[in-house]
Amino acid sequence: MENQAEFKLPLLGKSMKLHPLPGQDPQREYGVIWDACPQPSDGFGYVFEFTGKRRGRFLAWLTANGAAYACDGPLAYIPEGEPNLLLSRLPNNEDFGQVQARRGARVPLQTVSRFARSRTGTFAFEQPSCDIGPYAGSSLGLRTFAAVGYLAFVHIPSAAQTPVLTGLAADVMGDLLRPPLPDALDMLVHHVRSAQPGAVSGFERYAARLLEEAGASMIRPLAARTALEAGRLSSTGLAWLRFDDSALSAGERQLVLAVESALNRLLLVQEAVEGFPGTAAPYAGFDEGFCSQQDWRCIIDIASGAAEAVQRSERENPLRQMHGVHAARGGEWDVRTRFAQACETMRLPFRMEYRFDADAAGGTVAVECSVPQPEAFPSTRWDGVRGAWEDVRMLRGWAASAYAMRLAALLAAAAFGAGVGIARAYVTVRPGGLDAPVGMSLRFDRISFMSDVLPLIAEGALGADRNACDPAAVLALLNPADCSAAFSDDGFFGVAQPLDIGLESRRSPLWEDDRALPGPLSELLQADRVCELDVLHDEDADLTARVSVAMEDAESSPLASIVLLEEIAAQAGERESKRAAEGGSSDGRVPLYCANPCTRMLVRLSEADVKTRYSKASDAAFAAQSSLSRLYAQVGDVTRALEVAEACRSLAPTSLPGYLDGVSVLMDEGRFAEAEELARRALRIASDRRDSSYLRYRLAYSLWKQDRFDLALACYTSVTADGGDMAGHAEIEMADLMEQMGMREHLSNDAAAATLHENGIPAAPTSEVMGCLAQAALGLADAGILRASAFPAYAVAQLASDDALIVVARSLESGLDVA
After folding, report:
1. 93-143, pLDDT tens digit by residue?
2. Are residues 261 and 400 in the same domain?
3. Which InterPro entries match (predicted)?
4. Cα-to-chain-centroid distance, residue 514
């Protein structure tokens, strides 16, 4: 444009000169002209470089909507293509939006700033990506605003050949979480450290600072040795680094968690700046100091959601109803699921591991949680008053303790939000992990917490900057009803004595629990006392161990193994008869074997009379019989193999071994129709996806051999869709089947599911199975029979793939004890 002819403003033409901008050539002067020459309709004039008092060159045409098109003379028509500057307003709020700019014909528009429009119609830049000098914070008319934007973000950087920082913080975070993790981390740090001054944003610089402090450069050798992947949690949207705990030392684990925390704090900073009025957050617009301030704000403000957490008790609990079964309002299941959901949705800057217990009737919730070590906290902090970085390494212990106290307040709020009947909340923190010694144990009482502590949180006292590294001040504000804590010289926790909670006596061994079952549970489970639900206590453990020994040489010496197993089965039967005689068992109880506790909950699905009551069958006897079935088939005695398999099914009607043994024998004999019928029966009592998937895999082969190709293909397809242990085997067999059928295109998952449904083959545990398990889980929990309820609770949780339900099941099983 240097060569374009100068334009002389007519006498009546209007003009306005602008203040110099940072980076502007001091020999140049810019402004806006209007009503001085032709322009398209709805025009607002031209950005103009003055070369004299009333002469100069055209730079860009301005529209009445705030766009700017580069030009070298007056325009008659609106140019084609995108403008060089564009104001994009929010669709639901026209007073806020973003400024987008581009410097080349083939370069896309990118966000360079936000804007806010006042009630009087003026505009102001918010978090611009470059220094706009005298116009920072000013309220400007649209003509001036657009002209300054064009000059600052397009023309002046182009003339000086300097980069304009554009883009979104979300894009930076997306790259950081892209695999492989070590490359993503190192590339960000390298990009920042090797860039020319002004070529990277404050957000990127702060990201590099956090990652270096966390030790991100040491992640690569760990990832080379063991799987280490980054993902986002669906419950919170935060980062979660997946790794094998057993493959890392304690120090390596802390390193991984420090990097995870750095990523999450960056995500929280990103969201914090996106929370300002406007659309997406241009990372270029936030300097490193501002990011540091937001980071600390995310750390010290974690208790701000306490009031909302308490109010959760007034809302519906989506997990109070499972598979058509409703738990009691305010009962154990309701309280535990409410608390677990609150914890699972907490958006925290550091990973929190936790376990909890509850006594809904007694009004108590107790939780133990991990808190981060001081080294996980920032070592520097931006001092906005002095405009300099402050070394806060000596304060990190104090900051970590204060953080733990705020976390305790949030957990107490979640406990009180688990139900209006919860009057006491115990929070015990263990620095570094749940297996670490106790650092602090607090008790909160509901009324004092709600009347005294919540108002202080609401007014921001807990999150005040002055209390960021002052645990004594935070503890005084919390004023717990009881406290046990120990502190070291660096301000972090020492070793404290946990408070006595009094929930330990609620779980006796199931086989010793002589409590009567409530009527509905007694009818469902066909048992009168809790101890009748036990299936894990093995009174013949010595004989059970001998079964494994007997099978060691079964492949080479099956007859010898058969002799040993028959002897074991006989001995187990004798012991069983003796125990029955000594116990005076003459009430007609039927021996029942259950492969796991969940199958005990399914007895209602067997064909026995609902009044039937059961005694626990010998584990050793069943193991011996099941092994004998396979060995009889191996030596060619098919009749005895099938008879023993049938006996196993009679002894264990809701467990799979007898069915699987029978299916294997029948398929080996080519009796595929009978194998199909038995596999279908087994599917009706399968209680988890793995069992269901395996049965459909066996069923597929039996259907294939009966020339029922379409149904066999649907079964194989459903197994591969499950992605479990049998998926690879199913894929191989399915390829052979498709070749025989002359098919090239795979059957869709939806079509396979429809075919299975039409033919009465369930693709997952049936609704009847899940209904029984849900009734048992919720009913036993609400009856206070915690340990027994844990087993069906795990099954329900795994089917739902719900982390909160898994935590609930763990709490039912072991409470605050290590499982």
Report:
1. 778 888 999 887 777 888 888 899 999 999 999 878 788 889 988 999 999
2. no
3. TPR-like_helical_dom_sf
4. 40
Smallest Cα–Cα separation from 618: which of 662, 663, 653, 570?
570
What is the pTM (predicted TM-score) of this model?
0.84
Q: Please give the C-alpha separations between residue 716 and each of 618, 707, 737, 738, 762, in angstroms, as whole numbers.
A: 36, 14, 10, 11, 13
In this structure, the answer to whether residues 175 and 268 fall within a common structural domain is: yes
Spatial distance between the Cα atoms of 792 and 794, rounded to a whole number of angstroms: 5
535 within domain boundaries: no
Q: Is residue 542 part of a domain?
A: no
Tokens found for residue 341: 């959901």
pLDDT digits 0-9 by tens, 508-525: 899 999 999 999 999 999
| Closest-CA residue to 270 (of 278, 280, 261, 258) | 280
Based on the fold, state whether residues 359 and 457 are members of the same structural domain. yes
Phi-psi region of 161 (alpha: psi -120 to 50; beta: other; left: phi over 0): left
Residue with tokens 């259907």: 703
Residue 151 sits in the same domain as residue 218? no
pLDDT digits (tens, 9 = 90+) for 543-587: 999 999 989 888 888 899 999 999 999 998 888 888 877 765 556
Domains in the chain: how many in total? 3
- What's the domain range around 493? 302-506
- The answer to the question of residue 438 being in a domain is yes
Secondary structure of residue 112 in the 3-state scheme: strand
- Which of 506, 526, 548 is the C-terminal boundary of a domain? 506
Residue 614 and residue 537 in contact, taking contact as beta carbons nearer than 8 Å: no
Decide: residue 382, CB within 10 A, 0-12 exposed, 13-18 middle, 19+ buried: buried
The token pair at 97 is 């939006």
Q: Phi/psi at 784 (nearest 5 deg)?
A: 80, 10
